[in-house]
Design brief:
The complex is a heterodimer of chains A (493) and B (282).
Chain A (H helix, E strand, L loop, with lengths): L3 H14 L6 H6 L10 H4 L12 H9 L8 H4 L7 H9 L3 H9 L5 H7 L11 H5 L9 H11 L16 E5 L3 H12 L3 E5 L8 H4 L8 H13 L3 E3 L10 H6 L5 E4 L5 E2 L12 E3 H8 L19 E5 L3 H12 L4 E5 L11 H9 L3 E3 L2 E8 L5 E14 L5 E5 L5 E4 L2 E4 L3 E2 L3 H5 L25 E3 L2 H4 L4 H23 L1
Parallel strand pairs in A: 1-2, 1-4, 2-3, 4-16, 6-14, 7-8, 7-14, 8-9
Antiparallel strand pairs in A: 5-15, 10-11, 11-12, 11-13
Helix pairs in contact in A: 1-4, 4-6, 4-10, 6-7, 6-10, 7-10, 8-10, 11-20, 15-16
Chain B lengths: L1 E10 L2 E7 L1 H6 L5 E5 L7 E10 L4 E7 L3 H7 L6 E2 L1 E6 L10 E7 L3 H13 L3 E8 L8 H7 L4 E4 L6 E2 L3 H10 L2 E7 L2 H13 L4 E4 L15 E4 L2 E4 H4 L2 E3 L5 H8 L3 H9 L13
Parallel strand pairs in B: 8-9, 8-12, 9-10, 10-11, 12-13
Antiparallel strand pairs in B: 1-2, 1-6, 2-5, 3-4, 3-7, 4-5, 13-16, 14-15
The chains are: A alpha/beta (493), B alpha/beta (282).
């Protein structure tokens, strides 16, 4: 791994040698800038951010790699349609404020999306430079540049313009990415917006789920403060479905429309023997203890977290990587990520898997946990693992794991973290039978407007999509916001 | 902010707080609970059953025992202070119907959440008999409130310092043996509920219990509260907290409740959060 100093020196050398005007050929020849990051041996002992972000030189080099394609293939890969070549061009002109303005036309949370979006399967997948080099890792680092712009201009507050008050009231349920995006856009149209959150902190999965070392909470707080300055009201400690129902919000509290962005908040378990043992946790619980309740700070936090030495994480997604890397930072000596397919089928971002491996997590691939063993106190003492091989592609298009009979073996662990996804929380569905759901419990919405089967009620994010990404959730929140504004304006005619 | 309008010390380590929480007071039903977080980034979320509510005053009542650093810290708050976060009402309300004769059994701090259930059962037209128990006389709480529901209230202490000497299962068995008991409700330590279930089962009486497992968010998100109910995984926060006692895997529940015992003791001994419970010092 290159140290931040080496990368910075490379950037300086490249910049010094750049000709005044660049031909596409010149641009394609510029080397891709690595992301400076904390040394793995150091970072596993702290909670600080792993990726340090580009310096100005590095950003200028990376931005000059962009060919400014006329047809902008990258934009098609962005769920919110950011004018990517447009903002990158502004970077090359050192107009960072201008670059941020371009991004903010389409995205509200560049500091967050620049960090957590899976760019390699979105914008960067379509990048011409990556295609020319036949290597997606050589694509322009769009996400890194987005983050650079957001961080560079962090002190400069740019509040969007807000239309005159319409007198209409909108309730937004949940405060994760879909809700934040929806709340901001609805507010811009001049409607009054109140966001209801069940927990004592706003932000949803950005606060309780994604760890500090991947997404510093100060960034989430800053974005939320911005919303408050736009006049959006936040109500904590309100669990819609219990404290108030959607019907009560509309009929008694006078909300003209409701957006539900409550996420997929019900952890799935494997339903194998031993899952009820003491040191078996859902990734949600493990991460919530560490992130939301700050249990990583043993000195200050009143919430305990289990002391683990040998940890098995079940699953291969981003949440599994987050849980595994959190376990290392909380003092585990051995962390195995147990996944039933091979590395190339893992749903986690490539970069997250690489980070986990760099930090010392082991990938135990083609392995299916079949039983968790415990001692007389109910503490995990091992996991029985069955070997798998890859069979035919399944519905997801990935080759399916086939268990190999008679291949079971036992590996020693004292903790198991189950990170195999979330189902949708049934609470709103139970208390609002008017809202139609599919058999997985996800809300069924009109794909163009995100409207549910209940008039005036819209939904987006994981409650509709199942487990998806921050940017897809934001895309839906924005789509719903546009539809809500149309609906409210139509209503007043 | 949820202001404390009244605080009472019910016994050495047991406190009652009446909190301003109009929305929760209006929506709550018997058997539901709240999650209380004192405030700031570092305080724990503590699940507590709602012991009473007053819709006119817009208040709810919680009763808690100081056991760990967090409950010691909560007990430091006085009338006029505020708790930053109270979420509720959570959980599925108690199933109330007219059974006929119903026996309600409360142990220790479990007497407090038992009250609204006994009250609702009585309101539904049941003949309600109540048994309350504690280790010793000083730990008996809410005697008067309970006696107002059942003039023949039975009190039991382990050491015989008040009422009958022994454990609550003895009078429970006696009432069941007298006949006509159609339903029982037990709230208290897991071990007490386990043996009440055994007694009720032997007498052929269905029993409802209220489980207090480890929990963080209270909305179904963390799965920490999962329990084994008749071989099926259930979440206490959304599916419960009340279950058919005969279906509960008690040994697993008690084992899981002990997950953080060692760390909790360490926290208390190290005066975490500036609270030195053991020494009675701030």
């Amino acid at each position: 791994m290159k140290t931040p100093e080496i990368i910075e020196n490379e950037a300086k050398e490249v910049l010094a040698a750049l000709p005044e005007t660049l031909t596409p050929k010149d641009r394609a020849a510029i080397p891709h800038m690595d992301m400076p990051q904390q040394d793995p041996n150091v970072r596993i002992h702290n909670m600080s951010e792993v990726a340090l972000g580009y310096t100005e030189d590095e950003a200028l080099v990376e931005a000059s790699r962009c060919l400014q394609c006329k047809n902008k293939p990258c934009v098609a890969g962005c769920p919110v349609g950011i004018d990517i070549p447009g903002f990158i061009k502004k970077i090359t002109e050192k107009d960072y404020k201008g670059a941020l303005s371009v991004i903010q036309e389409s995205s509200l949370l560049p500091s967050i999306c620049g960090r957590v979006c899976p760019q390699e399967s979105q914008c960067q997948m379509h990048c011409t430079v990556g295609k020319m080099k036949k290597n997606i890792d050589e694509a322009v680092g769009i996400g890194r540049l987005e983050r650079f712009v957001a961080d560079k201009e962090a002190g400069e507050e740019m509040l969007p313009e807000i239309a005159p008050e319409t007198g209409k009231k909108v309730a937004v349920v949940g405060s994760g990415p879909a809700s934040i995006a929806c709340a901001a856009d609805v507010r811009r149209h001049g409607h009054s917006v109140t966001v209801f959150e069940a927990l004592h902190k706003m932000g949803g999965v950005l606060s309780y789920g994604i760890p500090e070392f991947r997404l510093p909470k100060r960034l989430v707080d800053t974005e939320l403060e911005k919303l408050e300055k736009m006049g959006i009201k936040f109500e904590r400690n309100v669990l819609v479905g219990r404290t108030r129902t959607i019907k009560e919000l509309m009929e008694e509290d006078g909300y003209d429309a409701v957006f539900v962005g409550t996420g997929a908040g019900l952890p799935k378990f494997m339903h194998i023997p031993g899952e009820d043992l003491v040191s078996v946790f859902s990734a949600n619980e493990y991460l919530t203890r560490s992130n939301l309740m700050k249990a990583y700070d043993r000195k200050e936090s009143m919430t305990p977290v289990f002391k683990s030495t040998k940890v098995a994480v079940f699953g291969g997604g981003n949440v599994a990587m987050d849980a595994a890397r959190t376990a290392l930072r909380l003092g585990a000596e051995k962390v195995d990520i147990i996944y039933r397919r091979s590395r190339s089928e893992m749903p986690a971002r490539k970069e997250e898997i690489e980070h986990a491996v760099e930090e010392g997590c082991n990938l135990r691939l083609l392995s299916q946990p079949v039983e968790i063993l415990g001692d007389e106190n109910g503490i995990v003492k091992g996991v029985v693992i069955r070997k798998c091989e890859l069979g035919e592609p399944d519905a997801s298009g990935r080759r399916s794991p086939v268990e190999i009979p008679g291949s079971d073996y036992t590996e020693e662990y004292d903790t198991v973290i189950v990170a195999i996804g979330n189902a949708s929380n049934p609470l709103i569905k139970k208390t609002t039978p008017e809202i139609e759901t599919n058999k997985r419990g996800n809300f069924i919405v009109n794909p163009d407007t995100c409207e549910t089967s209940m008039k005036g009620v819209y939904a987006g994010g994981d409650i509709v999509l199942g487990a998806a990404t921050v940017i897809l959730a934001m895309g839906q929140g924005r789509k719903a916001a546009a539809a809500i504004s149309r609906y409210l304006e139509g209503e007043s005619d | 902010m949820y202001r404390i309008v009244q605080k009472e010390t019910l016994s050495k380590d047991v406190f009652l707080m009446e909190l301003e929480a109009p929305l929760i007071a209006r929506e709550r039903k018997a058997g539901q609970f709240v999650i209380v977080q004192k405030g700031g980034d570092y305080n724990e979320r503590i699940p507590l059953t709602i012991a009473d509510a007053d819709t006119e005053r817009g208040t709810i009542t919680i009763v808690f025992q100081r056991v760990g650093a967090s409950t010691y810290a909560l007990a430091e708050l006085e009338e006029g202070d505020a708790i930053e976060n109270v979420l509720g009402p959570l959980g599925t309300p108690t199933h109330i119907e007219k059974y006929g004769k119903v026996v309600c059994v409360g142990g220790g701090i479990g007497v407090a959440p038992l009250y609204p259930i006994a009250e609702a059962m009585k309101k539904a037209g049941n003949d309600v008999r109540i048994i309350i128990g504690a280790r010793t006389k000083d730990l008996i709480i809410e005697e008067d409130k309970m006696r107002a529901l059942d003039p023949d209230l039975i009190i039991v202490t382990d050491d015989g310092s008040y009422g009958e000497k022994g454990v609550v299962t003895a009078p429970l068995k006696r009432l069941i043996d007298e006949g006509d008991v159609k339903h029982a409700v037990a709230i208290g330590p897991a071990i007490m509920m386990k043996f009440c279930t055994k007694t009720a089962e032997e007498g052929g009486v269905p029993i409802t219990v209220s489980l207090n497992s480890i929990m963080i968010d209270g909305t179904g998100m963390c799965g920490g509260c999962r329990v084994d109910i008749g071989g099926e995984m259930k979440f206490v926060c959304v599916d419960g907290p009340e279950f058919d006692g005969s279906l509960v895997n008690w040994d697993n529940l008690m084992m899981r409740q002990r997950t953080y015992k060692a760390q909790e003791k360490e926290d208390l001994d190290s005066c975490k959060g500036g609270i030195c419970g053991r020494l009675g010092l701030k």
